[in-house]
Amino acid sequence: MTNPEKKHILYKESIKREVTALKEKILSFLDDERYEDLQALIDNATKEELAKVLETLDEDHLAKLFDCLDKELAADVFVLLKQETQKMLLEHFSDIEMQEVTEEILDEKPEELLESMPLDVVQEVLLKADPEQRNDKIVEILNFLEYKKFVQLKPLLSELKPMDIAEIFAEIDEEKLPLIFRLLPKELAAETFVEMNSTQQELLIRSFSDHELKLILEDLFVDDTVDLIEEMPANVVKRILMQADSETRKSINEILKYPKDSAGSIMTTECISLRQDMTVQQCFEKIRAQAIDKETIYTCYVTDNQKKLLGIVTVKDLLLHSYNERVEDFMQDNFVYADTLTDKEDVANTLSKYDLLSIPVVDQENLLVGIVTVDDALDVITEEATEDISFINAVTPSDKPYLETGVFRIYLHRIPWLLILMISATFTGLILNTYEAMLSTLLVACVPMIMGTGGNAGSQASVTVIRGMALDEIRPRDILSVIWKEIRVSLLVSVSVGFVCFAKLQLIDRFIFGYPYTLLYSAAVGVAIMFGVIVAKIVGCCIPILAKTLKIDPAVFANPFITTFTDVLSLLIFCGVTLGLFGLGTV
Amino acid sequence: MTNPEKKHILYKESIKREVTALKEKILSFLDDERYEDLQALIDNATKEELAKVLETLDEDHLAKLFDCLDKELAADVFVLLKQETQKMLLEHFSDIEMQEVTEEILDEKPEELLESMPLDVVQEVLLKADPEQRNDKIVEILNFLEYKKFVQLKPLLSELKPMDIAEIFAEIDEEKLPLIFRLLPKELAAETFVEMNSTQQELLIRSFSDHELKLILEDLFVDDTVDLIEEMPANVVKRILMQADSETRKSINEILKYPKDSAGSIMTTECISLRQDMTVQQCFEKIRAQAIDKETIYTCYVTDNQKKLLGIVTVKDLLLHSYNERVEDFMQDNFVYADTLTDKEDVANTLSKYDLLSIPVVDQENLLVGIVTVDDALDVITEEATEDISFINAVTPSDKPYLETGVFRIYLHRIPWLLILMISATFTGLILNTYEAMLSTLLVACVPMIMGTGGNAGSQASVTVIRGMALDEIRPRDILSVIWKEIRVSLLVSVSVGFVCFAKLQLIDRFIFGYPYTLLYSAAVGVAIMFGVIVAKIVGCCIPILAKTLKIDPAVFANPFITTFTDVLSLLIFCGVTLGLFGLGTV
């Protein structure tokens, strides 16, 4: 009779022996670089055996062996390892090297992940994963967890960038958000708050005590506070202004009075000003003292007692001069600046043109009132491109991401344009109603092609010119060179289009589908399309320039006007050429 | 008999007395702030008299009086003043205050300007003028001047930013360019060279001696040299590579091997690397030593001996720690980085998302190979927006400004799309040819409106989704929320469009123009347009997402496909609804 206890021990002994045997084989294969044999060995072993072997190896062999496993096996084995071994592996391999394995691990359910692995390893795994996948997983984990377990994830959140935390928070259940938000350390909380969408910001502010709100506001830069105020409803704004200190309140009111889209409205008032008689040493002392509170420190502004802007000094300039030199001896006094009322798009373009990190904003008396930084310029450039793309395609631009914009708002952004364009189609309807009796069926069937090609040819020209003007490459006074260029382009284009149109009618419509398009018919349509293209291109390039001259945004104005115009013109030309020039009436 | 000499003296005396009298009156009016009387006095005086008075005043009165003159008079008087007085005025008033006057002065012919005023005053005037006007004037002056006089303008050019000089050079006569370019000091010459267009760069390189080329190349950053090489013809590239030092040549070859549009292809290899055991003091010493040669110094990279990237330290971090602290104690080890093969658009978006000034680029072994700076990211974002706008509107994007692109190249960028779209209109032609016999004239006249509205509704949806995906706000897995949103929006939109269409046919076409659109006809067209809009919106939002899933640029793919699709669908729906549902045949 065998003792079951004994049997168990024997069984364990045998496993241990097997593992030891496996380990020795693996070690010898590894050292002799017999990778094919090693692979065969791995394929035959269970993941538990492999985990046991891995735990007994030194770091070098451990890494080598782990590297031989395919990603699925590696993930399975990794979860079984002891915490120290897991950490050793995470430290040994770089983020990129571990990425496939971490992805595989994260594909398992997050609860399992949390149960099977200690929290600091989970954190390491999450931090090594691809940001997109990582954020989704964290959302899942946070939504799954109870409050008391959130606290364990505090160190994980503290390791993330504010932009990523905001992305994660955007998908967290509403009632959990205020609790999780309070886990963030003070400064990170403020930075994250800035990146969140306005609905969530409002939710949080409503859940804050006055003291909590004050703490957040203290850590916000003035321009961010202004952005926040512009988004919030009146009662929230009142609370914000009450909690802001008087200095900040003054700056906020200052910025709020500038018109939307002006440099003043996007600037921040926090920047480092120096005096012209300061030495490099004194400058560095001042920068060190103020750096923590300023959005950017790399460009400093030299002003006099009245805050009149005298020059600019970069930290690079300071580093290139010795400690006892004076600022006035090397400051750049021929600098680029913006007016508070300069259009923000111009400011962004200037910043981009001169490769600056920030640009000073002065008031009418030439006194320094703030700066616009390159990250704001980037946002402006992206926004303006979105605006242009929207207007050109008949949508009023939205300042919120699509998925966060309400259905009714999207409706409002689209419906006016659709209606204007639909009603302006009255003209083409009238023309067709007038001439239709005279046009043969074959010619009427060509109308969509004629109008479509005219419209496309026109918008090709208008879009190129609109974009060129947005980038400051084309100015209104270039109108003659633009027209001359478009005339030459449209001649080339129209000849090709006319010829292909003729060929298409002969080959496709007549030969393949058997419609009786004679040579004369096809030639008439081809000639009509040629004239249509030339006229559309010239109209298309002129209208945006005229709009700009009249100080109307070319993108807004160009679209409905050019469409209506080219539609009507190409239809009229079509009727004129086929009926008048070629005499192709139905009669 | 009066001595003519005497008479002349008497005459001069009388002028002098008049001027003295004028001066006294002016002074008393100024001091008593009797501005109306002063204005009357000014209006009666000649510009010569005013100039004489101004020259005798102290700075305070001078400025006050000058400020009272309107801009035309001020300009006329200014030109008559002695050089010291001119300089005093230029120094007293800020650029903005002088702008109207300098504009007025510059509106006179440049040659007169050069003759009537000494060169250093001309320079001051030009530098105070609005950059746009200033650059044009400088072009005029340079084109007008003979070579030996260029030299006098050397100090003026040295005061301008490289981007402005490049703009000026773009309009200088070709044969004068190499001469004028040689006037620039060495470093400015290199910076200007980078900003010039490739035609002019080639012209210059061909005019350079090997030594001159070497000097310019020495001052270029590696990424700029790479851009240059990519633009130049083979024989020029050969010369450039021969003159570059071996270190640069190695870096160039390194960058050139990365695919177009990858992070590797836009990075620069010049950045400051630190070791983790360095103290703040040692870091600053290294930065000071290397700053002059590096494109950016504000973010430094901590690497080990193998160049493996361990962390990031900003100059701001360094300034916030004391001199004897070690880098490893405060470096950011959880940093954002890009792979050499990461798409440059993703790199730019990441840089923008995290508000970075530069982002490190690592190779497959996680070794630091370069950085991408924010100014390059700005260019990428602008370029990508232009690309999207172009593709959406059926133009192949150009990497050169419109005015610098040749006619034939513009033709090539436009013709394929026009032809594809024209030939795809075959489908609508077939549908019309099939159903036209059955459709009444009144219904055929509505076809452009039906197709136009369907097309516009579809492109509104597709453009919003395309832009949302470019900005990373919409991801392919959001497809269901996008469709659900578009369904709701399209229901709202279609009801409005259908109703307005019905009303328009009744009010405009029937009531005003007298076409016999009965209630039934109008209702049929209204219902058809409703269905058309709904289908177009859903197709419009799905196609870009499908394109992205298939790894095709949504902007390229979306346009021709969606246009053809919505045209055909709305036409079919129209025929189906009017003929099938409402039974409105011609018979």
Automatic annotation (TrEMBL), chains A, B:
<dbReference type="InterPro" id="IPR000644">
    <property type="entry name" value="CBS_dom"/>
</dbReference>
<dbReference type="Pfam" id="PF01769">
    <property type="entry name" value="MgtE"/>
</dbReference>
<dbReference type="InterPro" id="IPR006667">
    <property type="entry name" value="SLC41_membr_dom"/>
</dbReference>
<keyword id="KW-0812">Transmembrane</keyword>
<dbReference type="GO" id="GO:0015095">
    <property type="term" value="F:magnesium ion transmembrane transporter activity"/>
</dbReference>
<keyword id="KW-1003">Cell membrane</keyword>
<dbReference type="InterPro" id="IPR006668">
    <property type="entry name" value="Mg_transptr_MgtE_intracell_dom"/>
</dbReference>
<dbReference type="GO" id="GO:0005886">
    <property type="term" value="C:plasma membrane"/>
</dbReference>
<dbReference type="InterPro" id="IPR036739">
    <property type="entry name" value="SLC41_membr_dom_sf"/>
</dbReference>
<dbReference type="Pfam" id="PF00571">
    <property type="entry name" value="CBS"/>
</dbReference>
<keyword id="KW-0460">Magnesium</keyword>
<comment type="similarity">
    <text>Belongs to the SLC41A transporter family.</text>
</comment>
<comment type="subunit">
    <text>Homodimer.</text>
</comment>
<keyword id="KW-1133">Transmembrane helix</keyword>
<dbReference type="InterPro" id="IPR046342">
    <property type="entry name" value="CBS_dom_sf"/>
</dbReference>
<keyword id="KW-0479">Metal-binding</keyword>
<dbReference type="GO" id="GO:0046872">
    <property type="term" value="F:metal ion binding"/>
</dbReference>
<dbReference type="Pfam" id="PF03448">
    <property type="entry name" value="MgtE_N"/>
</dbReference>
<protein>
    <recommendedName>
        <fullName>Magnesium transporter MgtE</fullName>
    </recommendedName>
</protein>
<dbReference type="InterPro" id="IPR038076">
    <property type="entry name" value="MgtE_N_sf"/>
</dbReference>
<feature type="domain" description="CBS">
    <location>
        <begin position="331"/>
        <end position="387"/>
    </location>
</feature>
<feature type="transmembrane region" description="Helical">
    <location>
        <begin position="415"/>
        <end position="435"/>
    </location>
</feature>
<feature type="domain" description="CBS">
    <location>
        <begin position="267"/>
        <end position="328"/>
    </location>
</feature>
<keyword id="KW-0472">Membrane</keyword>
<dbReference type="InterPro" id="IPR006669">
    <property type="entry name" value="MgtE_transporter"/>
</dbReference>
<feature type="transmembrane region" description="Helical">
    <location>
        <begin position="519"/>
        <end position="547"/>
    </location>
</feature>
<keyword id="KW-0129">CBS domain</keyword>
<feature type="transmembrane region" description="Helical">
    <location>
        <begin position="568"/>
        <end position="585"/>
    </location>
</feature>
<comment type="function">
    <text>Acts as a magnesium transporter.</text>
</comment>
<keyword id="KW-0813">Transport</keyword>
<feature type="transmembrane region" description="Helical">
    <location>
        <begin position="441"/>
        <end position="466"/>
    </location>
</feature>
